[in-house]
C-alpha cells in the first residue's frame, strides 16, 4: 500500500536499496502508476506470456523435479501434449502455469493408480462380493429355482475367484518390479546428491567411493530390475500392463478430459475412423435428410482435419426447413456424435429474445442493472462446459441485435460477458434453426425435391432478406431440409419402434407390429 511505498521511496532514491518487483498490469496501474514518484524509481519490463514452444522448454527443465517428487517417469511426449492441450483447452489461465499444473496432476494421477488396486481387480472384488451375498441369501430357500440359481452362482464365483487370484498375483509381481526400479532410482538420486556435497566439502575419499563403487552398483541393480521386468512381459506374450510406468500423453489427455468434459479420444485424434462413418451414424437417427447429413459431416471433417481456423467454433450451421422434418433431431444426434452425450447441448429458445432488452440475458445484465451478478444464460453455460453444442432454436424470432452479438463468436471464437470474463467458443458447435423459406418448401408440387437448385435459390432469397450478409457470410453451411415423404415416414416409424422396444425390454415385454399397422403409422 501507500505506507510501504513511502518507506521504500527514500531508500530507492538514495540507491541504497536494490529492488526487483513483480506484479500484474492491473495491480501496477492500481498501486504503482498512481504514485509518480514511486513509478519513476522503477524501470518497467513487460514480460509476455510464453509461447507453446517456450512452455515445452520450461517443462523440460522442471521435469526432473516432478519425477523425483511423484516417483514416476514423465515422457517428453507428455510435456508436448501438456503444452498443446493447455493452450487450446484451458483458455482462462496463462502459460506456463496451466501446462505445469497439467503435468503435476497427470503425475499425481499415475502415482495414485500405482498405489491403488487396478480397476479390473476392483471390479472383480465388487462382483464377487455381490455374488456371495446373493448365495447366502439363497441358502434359506429350498425351492428348485433357488437351488438352481445358487448352483449357477457358486460355479460363477469359483470361476471369478480363479481370475481374481491370477490378476492379483500378476499385479503384485508388477508392483514389486516397479517398486524395485523406483527405490533404486531414488537411491541413485540420493547418492548423486551426496556426491555433490562430498565434492563441495572436500571429502574426496567418500566422493571416490560414491563415484566408483556405490553409483555403479546401484545402476547395475536398477538395470537388472528393468531387464527382469522386460523379460517377464515378453513371457506374457505382450499382455497389457496393469500399472503405468510413466506419464504419457494419454494420461495428460485424461486430466484435460476430466476438467473440460472433452472425450479423451477426441483429444488424442483417435476419432478418425469415427468421422469417416459420420453419415452412417447420424442416419440411424435422422431419416430422409441425406443432403443435410452430408453437408454437416463434410464441415465437421474439414474442421477436425485442421483445415479450419482454430480461432473459430468447430462449426456454425443454419438449418432451414418446415417444422417436424428433423432439424432438432439432427442437432441432438450431432451433439451425441461429437461429444458422446446428447445432453452436451445448450438450447436457446429465440422466441424469448424478441425484444432488444432481453438479449442481455444471454451474457448478463450491464453494471448497475438488476441481475448484474447473476451471469448470462449462454455465457455461463459455455464457461462451465466449453465443449458442447449450442442450439439457437427458431432464430428468426430473435431481435436482430443478437446478430451483432454472435458475429464476434463466429469470427473470433470468443465472447466477453457483462462481468468481463472472456468466454471461449472455439470448442463448440453452433446450430441455428429457422423456418424462413418453409412456405416455399411447403408449396412445392409433387415431384420437385427440396434440393433442386431453383428451390434452394428461392429459399436463400428469403434467408438473405431476413438476415444481414455479414452474418450469413460467417455461417459454414446453410442446410435446407427435405419434406418428408411416405418412405421417410416409414423409416421414422422404425426408429421410434426401436426406442419402444428398448423401453419394453427393461420390463421383459415384447412388441410385434404387423405390416399393415406399420404402414398405418407411417401415413
Automatic annotation (TrEMBL):
GO CC annotations, alphabetized: cytoplasm
Coiled-coil residue windows: 150-201
Stored SMART domains: AAA
Domain AAA+ ATPase intervals: 313-464
InterPro entries: AAA+_ATPase, ATPase_AAA_core, ClpA/B, ClpA/ClpB_AAA_lid, ClpA_ClpB, P-loop_NTPase
GO biological process: cellular response to heat
A Pfam family it matches: AAA_lid_9
One Gene Ontology term of the molecular function aspect: ATP binding
Keyword annotations: ATP-binding, Chaperone, Coiled coil, Nucleotide-binding, Repeat
Family: Belongs to the ClpA/ClpB family.
UniProt cross-references to PANTHER family, sorted A to Z: ATP-DEPENDENT CLP PROTEASE, HEAT SHOCK PROTEIN 78, MITOCHONDRIAL
Protein name: AAA+ ATPase domain-containing protein
Species of origin: Bicosoecida sp. CB-2014
